[in-house]
């Protein structure tokens, strides 16, 4: 169970976030919460996330040989976790480094997105470093899981390289991504569920509707 003191901080800081909108492929617009980790965050926000993840992913952290995250917001959380537990940190990026040792991850394009900020693929150089150390078990930690397609592509690429998934965790979950990943045979855990309430932009507001273990 997540302590009430952690829930209070995460709910307060998350629900104070502004909501904007972006244009989708078919001309419609969709809401987007500008979370503290990509705008302004107090130290207690990151501390609450870190402590919450440590509770939620206790068993997975004990099994893991390394922590992996996909750029960019998750890096703010996973690097401190990796340091605390003396684990290597592996970064997945949108940048094509154009070297033979990188692993290319096919990225599923979300229907509502007009375009990616970067490449439609993801790239990882760090997996080959992990092979050199003969480490096998990877814990994936994300800032947000929504549709789940990008993460499933990442999981496939990791397993194709001979690694094992020690666990999957996310700070926020929206949509059916966590359920989709679990249906595929993995166990993904979300620290808190985020929804956007309101029938038009003027009324949109982020709401935390639940926490892990509730």
Explained architecture:
This protein has 7 helices and 10 strands. With 214 residues, the chain is of the alpha/beta class. It has one domain: Rossmann fold (3-Layer(aba) Sandwich), CATH 3.40.50.2020. Strand 3, helix 4 (75-84) and strand 4 form a beta-alpha-beta unit. It is globular and about 50 Å long. The model has no long low-confidence stretch (mean pLDDT 93).
List keywords for this structure.
214 residues, alpha/beta, Rossmann fold, 6-stranded mixed sheet, 7 helices, 32% helix
Name the average pLDDT. Answer: 93
Tell me, what's the shape?
Answer: globular
Percentage of β-strand residues: 25-35%
Contiguous uncertain segments of 5+ residues: none
State the end-to-end distance. Answer: 7 Å
Order of helices and strands: HEEHHEHEEEHEHEHEE
Give, in spatial order, the strands making up the sheet with the most strands: 4-3-7-8-9-10
By DSSP (H or I, 4+ residues per run), the number of helices equals 7
Biggest sheet: strands, sense, closure?
6 strands, mixed
**CATH fold name, please?**
Rossmann fold
Q: Helical percent range?
A: 25-40%
- Structural class, from secondary structure content? alpha/beta
Q: How many domain regions?
A: 1
For this structure, what is the CATH class? Answer: Alpha Beta
Query: How many β-strands, per DSSP?
Result: 10
Any guess at the CATH architecture?
A: 3-Layer(aba) Sandwich
Q: If you compute it from the alpha carbons, what radius of gyration comes out, rounded to the nearest whole angstrom?
A: 17 Å
């Amino acid at each position: 169970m997540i302590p009430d003191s952690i829930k209070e901080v995460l709910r307060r800081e998350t629900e104070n976030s502004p909501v904007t909108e972006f244009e989708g492929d078919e001309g419609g617009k969709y809401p987007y919460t500008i979370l503290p980790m990509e705008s302004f965050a107090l130290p207690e926000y990151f501390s609450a996330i870190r402590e919450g993840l440590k509770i939620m992913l206790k068993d997975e952290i004990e099994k893991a040989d390394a922590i992996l995250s996909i750029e960019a917001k998750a890096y703010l959380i996973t690097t401190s976790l990796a340091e605390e537990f003396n684990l290597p940190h592996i970064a997945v990026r949108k940048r094509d480094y154009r070297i033979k040792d990188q692993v290319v991850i096919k990225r599923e394009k979300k229907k509502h997105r007009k375009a990616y900020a970067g490449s439609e693929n993801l790239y990882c150089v760090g997996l080959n470093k992990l092979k050199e150390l003969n480490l096998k078990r990877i814990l994936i930690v994300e800032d947000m899981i929504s549709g789940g397609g990008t993460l499933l592509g990442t999981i496939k690429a990791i397993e194709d390289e001979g690694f094992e998934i020690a666990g999957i965790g996310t700070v926020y979950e929206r949509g059916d991504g966590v359920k989709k990943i679990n249906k595929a045979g993995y166990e993904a855990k979300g620290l808190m569920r985020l929804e956007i309430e309101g029938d038009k932009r003027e009324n949109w507001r982020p709401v935390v509707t639940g926490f892990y273990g509730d």
